[in-house]
């Protein structure tokens, strides 16, 4: 807490003439986790800076002490307090799992080793077409080659 006022004061005191529009989404209630030397910050009211956009969110912690800054279908950004000499948070960016790439340097020798059997299983098709099938496997699924390689 205090980032919004800190930015306002820093921009004001540094006599900034030009800057882009900005909005602050501030974490509220960040605990102080250091054992000693804590002096609570004095409340300061810094006035809105000219290019500050109203509407920044005040983000409060969940019951477990973590903050969710934003959540999209493919990514979540969270924060949690850290032990430091000033109230501090660390950030975590979590991406949803997605299919990886097929390592052809590993797969091609297996395909070559099983080429004859694959031609019999899939007549008229190039054995290397099996790569498309491998890419379409879901999480936890496996493909067993004729020689038993999984």
UniProtKB/TrEMBL annotation:
It comes from the Eukaryota. GO terms for molecular function: 3'-tRNA processing endoribonuclease activity. InterPro entries: RibonucZ/Hydroxyglut_hydro. Signal peptide: none annotated. GO terms for cellular component: nucleus. SUPFAM superfamilies: Metallo-hydrolase/oxidoreductase (SSF56281). This is Uncharacterized protein. It comes from Vitrella brassicaformis.
């Amino acid at each position: 807490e205090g980032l919004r006022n800190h930015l306002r004061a820093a921009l004001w005191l540094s006599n900034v003439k030009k800057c882009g529009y900005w909005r602050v989404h501030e974490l509220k209630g960040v605990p102080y986790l250091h054992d000693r030397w804590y002096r609570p910050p004095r409340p300061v009211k810094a006035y809105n800076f000219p290019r500050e956009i109203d509407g920044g969110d005040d983000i409060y912690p969940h019951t477990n002490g973590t903050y969710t800054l934003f959540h999209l279908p493919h990514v979540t950004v969270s924060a949690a307090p850290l032990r430091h000499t000033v109230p501090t948070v660390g950030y975590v960016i979590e991406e949803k799992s997605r299919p990886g790439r097929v390592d052809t340097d590993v797969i091609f020798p297996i395909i070559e080793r099983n080429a004859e059997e694959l031609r019999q299983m899939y007549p008229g098709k190039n054995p290397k077409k099996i790569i498309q099938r491998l890419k379409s496997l879901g999480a936890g699924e496996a493909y067993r080659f004729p020689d038993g390689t999984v």
